[in-house]
Amino acid sequence: MLSNLGNILLFSKVLLSLTIIYFSYQCIKSSSVIIFKKIYQISLLQSTLVLGCFFTLIAAYVVSDFSLINVYQNSHTAKPLLYKISGTWGNHEGSLLLWIIILTIFSFLFLIYNNKHPKNYRLYTLIIQNVLILGFLFFILFNSNPFLSLSPIPKEGLGLNPILQDPALAIHPPLLYLGFVGSSIYFSAAIASLITNYSEKSFAFSIKNWVLISWGFQTLGILVGSIWAYYELGWGGFWFWDPVENASLLPWFAMTALFHSLLVLEKRNLLYFWVIILCLITFTLSVTGTFLVRSGILNSVHTFASDPSRGIYILSFLSIMIFGSLFLLLNKYRKENKLIYSNSKETFVLINNWFMMFYLLTVLVGTLYPIFTDALTNNKISVGPPFYNTVILPVVVIFLFFMAIGPKAKWIKNRFDNLGCFALFLFLALVVNFFIIYFFKSFTILSNLVIISSLFLIFSSFFDLVNSILKSRFDLARTISHLSFGFLVLFIGLNHNFSIEKDFNMRVGEVKSFDNYEIQLQNLELKTYNNYKAIIGNLKIKNYVLKEERTLNPEIRIYDNPQTLTYEAAIKTNFIKDYYLTMSNIDRSEFYNIKFQKKPLMIWIWISVAMLVFGGFLRIFKNAKIN
Amino acid sequence: MQRLIKSTITIIFIFIIIIFYISLGKENNYDTVNLVGKKIDSIELQSFNDEKIVNTKSFKDNNFTLINFWASWCGPCRAEHPILMNLKESRSLMLVGVNFKDKKKNAKNFLDDLGNPYDILLKDENGKKSIIFGIYGIPESILLNKELVVIEKFVGPLAKEDYEKILEEIGEK
Description:
Largest sheet of chain B: 7 strands, mixed
Radius of gyration of chain B: 21 Å
Number of domains of chain A: 3
Oligomer: heterodimer
CATH topology of chain B: Glutaredoxin
Number of strands of chain B: 7
Number of helices of chain A: 18
Shape of chain A: globular
Largest interface: A-B, 26 and 22 residues
Distance between the termini of chain B: 78 Å
Structural class of chain B: alpha/beta
Structural class of chain A: alpha+beta
């Protein structure tokens, strides 16, 4: 029954999208100055139906309705309720439904919240957005339908991959999708703006909150994914330059460049075409990422069951998107003749954009290069962290200096009258860096330059914060975000420099000593849970210097459905450091491999990113207040 | 000039799309389980003792070939060695050892201490050739028939059960 209901709702959605496109076109042709009321009504109905469709699938997961192939393949009766629900979007078909929800709801909200903008611009945005919705709806209906039924109905499902049964992973996809699928709305708006020649400052105004919303959620999605990778994958790192991680970072760079250049368009009516290009490439990169992941071209922890027909569909869709928007852009492109003074805020924003484009291209080349060499020469290579660290890190140093100086520049024509302050910040940064080297005995040129430049940004942003409080002229959003970014880079640098990692093969009862630490595998415990068994290690870690003693319990889990072995890290977190311990069995031996890591300031890395996002959302609330 | 820029941009995008299309048809999932039942390509490896190159095609002369990947630094390789010494007695099985990422001197000492079970001894100094055989880590062994099709793959040290299985496969049990 749920299968029929789901399919009916999907087909109704196709009809509603076609109706919206038809009425919007009629409305554009009519002499009416306002948008037909029925367009609002159908859009509302469309959003309601898509939510209904999604809740139908959730219901099928909750009641374990294995008459649906999708539920049979990805769920199991013994799974906890939370993971039954999150299983809905933990697979290819269900996650596409989430795509449609975000496309539809953003489309509706854009329509109702942008009522001060020209009718035709809003309607064309609605039409383009509905064309995108239709594209994905056809993909769902003809290739990836989550409501396909199965007969005879199996008694039990195949289960969800255990490493996906995790609270962070339950919210990671929705957050990330709100980010990169959300970028569809300004892709549509950019096309509409080109068609209707709506290139005023107010165009920037109409999309800036949407850019910030998608950027905020994209950042949160990346943060949650990194936290999950940190504690679940057992490597002790949080960013691996995995091609699929990179696929989420590419639109993030474009979004970051976009909301900075929107400032210039809004204040100075400059960079219109650049803003349009960024709008187009953000969503294009999002769909490219989806193509790379869903087609099976890339292999990573995110790999979905590979199916070349999916790849062909998304590739065709991507090609239409790219060449359609490229054709329109190249036809409408006119050179801007207004000059930008080289010492002005506009220039600094442009510099920010150059850096973002540099990072974007670096990551894009690193991600696509192995695909290209494989396709052209049959040579399988992988581009790993050394490439990214070598290319990106030195540039980050310069970027952070510009990030500190830029916000203090004035629009149109700037004169720096605060050079003394910059000298002071640099001096302070050098002094703090000197103390770090002196007390912690760690020095490499690049990492210390990273620390100096991030400290420079922190002092500078902190000065801005105090200054704006004193002058009661708050730009809290920007200051918090820049300050947080400085802290983020600083904490990553310190974490990288002062992490300790040790590897042992140990038997039960054995003790190993290193540096100031002693580690003992005291005993093992076997516990049986609802859907898995766990071998729990009891390890005692002693720090002689701090006279500190901690017990950590890493686990080896044996899941029943599907039968899988996972290794759960034991992590003890405080504000100074994390102890991170993983344990794995060595086949046909009584030894266990124990990997111990001390990772300083880990929690501050997460807090910095959360604060970065907080800055972004603060800006949205401020903008909404002004409206 | 503007036309040139426009054409270049369009060509770049067309090129990317074509590459994506070609990639779709490629097998990317690297899975050694699928190796069983597949024919081993012509792979060239260097002889352990001299500069001679041995091609896997030459294994066609034997009824069965067991290729064992090992190194002196690998503890479990030491554990499986007695099994290999027993397999040496088999008439229809050719034993090929591939010394993996090892120092020649250490490998020689290893074989001097424990005995040399291999009919042919090869080396893969940087471990790249072994990847083509679908080797993740060592020890691993693959059993080939006369047509060079993989009949069995053994991940980890050969155990007594594996020994029985090999004898069964080659019809000596």
